[in-house]
């Protein structure tokens, strides 16, 4: 799953910015073992580098992937690639984006609902 030069994208609908942060927080045990976030546990990701994770909550919902990805790292590379990959379009109620860089998600879970919050995996593309 960790793969240099790839970025994996989830789009979702969450209740608030604080809720998105709560779902994405990672921690470590007293022994220094990585404890995945609630989000990662629900999509069966055991480990990723949280330092290269980006996420954003938007007050307004959207179905415009170009607009949602604007301003993220490597957006000039990833926007056209994700746009080509996600040809059927997005649901019109997206207000959150999660990007894991140097990570190519290959899991089977495409959609997940976590305590009234919804995420859909849109794919993974090279960003460099």
TrEMBL record:
InterPro entries: Imm22 (IPR025560). This is Immunity 22 family protein. It comes from Paenibacillus rhizoplanae.
